[in-house]
Amino acid sequence: MEEQQVPTTFERGTDGPKVIVAGLDGSESSWRAAAYAAGLARRQHALLALVYVQPYLPGGAAMGVPVSDAETGMAQQLLAEIWEAVERLQGAFHVRWEFHTFRGDPYNGLAMAADQLTADAVVVGASERAGHRLIGSVAVRLVKTGRWPVTVVP
């Protein structure tokens, strides 16, 4: 009888998703994506990693805006809204979740988060910006990267 080899490297999605990354930026579509990802995570008994990518704001610093305060404020606001939803749904809906912040542009930040958190899936909201029709949205860029299944929530 031949002995079976156990894979020693990370293998995505072999027994269902273990980590689902959802991009969250405060937009309506990102909140819908987070809710959809939470439902997936609950049904799959996966960890929901909610990720906010803090943008670099070099122009804001030149205008006297304290960049770190503005970025931290948005992350704190998102986290407060997440806790509010968790408390509202307590007892009826349970999902393991974490909140992470990364720095950079949304595409690179989400890609870095998915890689570092060994995501099995990425869920993002559809872009609400008209300019993305010309240069490509974060969702399209993530799909083209091809390292994770990507779900785009309208």
What characterizes the major β-sheet? 5 strands, parallel
CATH C-level label: Alpha Beta
Structural class: alpha/beta
SSE pattern: EHEHHEHEHHE
Oligomer: single chain
CATH architecture: 3-Layer(aba) Sandwich
Low-confidence parts: 131-135
Which homologous superfamily in CATH is the superfamily? HUPs
- Counted up, domains total 1
> Which percent range fits the helix content?
40-55%
- Which whole number gives the mean pLDDT? 79
Beta percentage is 15-25%
Specify the number of helices.
6
What is the alpha-carbon Rg in Å? 17 Å
What CATH calls the topology is: Rossmann fold
Report how far the terminal alpha carbons are from each other: 52 Å
Principal-axes shape call:
globular
* Strand neighbour order, sheet with most strands: 3-2-1-4-5
Count of extended strands: 5
Protein name: Universal stress protein
Domain UspA: 18-154
InterPro entries: Rossmann-like_a/b/a_fold (IPR014729), Universal_stress_UspA (IPR006015), UspA (IPR006016)
Pfam families: Usp
